[in-house]
User: Which sequence fits this backbone?
């Protein structure tokens, strides 16, 4: 009776000593599991895309419209026109993106170019407000693009790649070999790059949809181009200007003929010398008294 009892006590002591054995920490670079699970097969990584959770979030299918265009008009008071444009922008929640001013000497006119952004919902109201600043609309072009499909496709691409990323993270948690972990990490880096690129494209589309763009150019003809009348003073001033211009043209025309002038001058000098020689020969020498 004592022998079985002693054997039982010995067996319990052995089990207790095994359970109290301290656990060792293993570095990631030296991963070697004592009881490794079956290695990650190549087809498991290939099937990651097939295991994407089909429960995707609802996608916004509302119309996504981009409005953009350009308008050009003539005005008698460009400063007032600019003030009206800026005032309308501030009232409708828009802003001035770029502004340029040019003076053309050939056409004798001053021109202003503005690039504005205005909320899409207020685009038509802003366009109508330009009529009060324009004396004559030379051209107006409005372009409308429907990017709903592109918007939906980009969002779906982001959602699918995020689910794919989660799937590869799950596979990484089950991987037992360093080669498998490195392969999965490469896949994750590629997926994250795709997500970032698609998100940037989506942000750009969202900004274009939210704010419409319009290029505005308006000009005014300067006073010098306008005929002030047909009176004596105007005709006298015009005659003086035209006479001075004719004189300038003659002067520059003569200057352009300088090779011919040099040749003529040389010929005249030769003729003069020849006459002097001839006169000297024809005159008799004076006789002594």
Assistant:
């Amino acid at each position: 009776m004592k022998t079985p009892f002693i054997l039982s006590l010995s067996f319990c002591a052995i089990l207790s000593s095994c359970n109290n054995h301290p656990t060792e920490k293993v570095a990631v670079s030296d991963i070697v599991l004592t009881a490794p699970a079956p290695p990650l097969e190549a087809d498991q990584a290939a099937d990651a895309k097939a295991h994407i959770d089909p429960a995707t979030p609802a996608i916004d299918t509302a119309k996504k419209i981009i409005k953009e265009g350009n308008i050009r008009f003539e005005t008698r008071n460009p400063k007032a026109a600019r003030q009206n444009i800026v005032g309308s922008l501030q009232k409708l929640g828009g802003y001035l993106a770029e502004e340029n001013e040019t003076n053309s000497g050939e056409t004798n006119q001053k021109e202003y170019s503005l690039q504005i952004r205005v909320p899409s919902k207020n685009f038509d109201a802003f366009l109508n407000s330009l009529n009060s600043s324009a004396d004559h609309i030379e051209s107006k072009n409005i372009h409308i693009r429907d990017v709903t499909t592109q918007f939906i496709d980009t969002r779906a691409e982001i959602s699918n790649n995020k689910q794919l990323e989660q799937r590869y993270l799950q596979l990484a948690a089950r991987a037992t070999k360093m080669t498998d972990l490195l392969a999965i990490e490469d896949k994750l880096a590629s997926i994250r790059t795709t997500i970032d690129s698609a998100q940037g494209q989506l942000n750009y589309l969202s900004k274009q949809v939210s704010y419409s763009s319009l290029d505005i150019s308006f000009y005014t003809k300067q006073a010098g181009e306008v005929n002030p009348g047909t009176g004596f003073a105007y005709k006298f001033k015009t005659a003086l200007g035209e006479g001075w211009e004719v004189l300038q043209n003659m002067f520059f025309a003569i200057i352009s003929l300088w090779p011919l002038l040099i040749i003529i001058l040389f010929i005249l000098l030769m003729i003069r010398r020849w006459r002097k020689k001839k006169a000297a020969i024809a005159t008799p020498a004076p006789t002594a008294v």
